[in-house]
Specification:
This protein is an all-alpha fold and 110 residues long. It has two domains: 67 residues, lambda repressor-like DNA-binding domains (434 Repressor (Amino-terminal Domain)), CATH 1.10.260; 36 residues, no CATH class. 71% of the residues lie in helices and 0% in strands. It contains eight helices and no strands. Helix 2 crosses helix 3 and helix 7 packs across helix 8. The two termini are 22 Å apart. This is Helix-turn-helix domain-containing protein. It comes from Oxynema aestuarii AP17. It holds the Pfam family HTH_3.
């Protein structure tokens, strides 16, 4: 699912109109419409995503990643490991079995 589809479906599940949710997260309803239709020119700011997640009972970090952003909490880690991250991501893309093992190990930690 895309960021917009998740937002739209969650909003509908909660019974909010676009105008009502937009008011709650302090954005214009036309902007929320663009987000829901995946037509925004850029990903929303992290605080907008976190507000959406809070009002829609969604996982903040998952929603941030789905929006195409990196959670600020991980930026320092990425900066410290900037040389090895491309190799890791390339290996995961080229070897789905390895990627699955990484994802399984990450899931066990939660």
């Amino acid at each position: 699912m895309t960021f917009g589809k998740v937002i739209r479906q969650s909003r509908k599940d909660k019974g909010f109109s676009q105008r009502e949710l937009a008011h709650r997260i302090d954005v214009d309803f036309t902007y929320l419409s663009k987000l829901e239709n995946d037509r925004s020119e850029y990903p929303p700011k992290e605080e907008v995503i976190r507000s959406l997640a809070a009002h829609l009972d969604l996982d903040e970090e998952e929603l941030i990643v789905l929006a195409g952003r990196m959670p600020q909490a991980y930026e320092e880690f990425l900066k410290q490991n900037y040389k090895t991250m491309p190799a890791l991501l390339r290996r995961m893309r080229e070897n789905p079995e390895f990627a699955q093992k990484v994802f399984e190990a990450a899931s066990q930690g939660e």
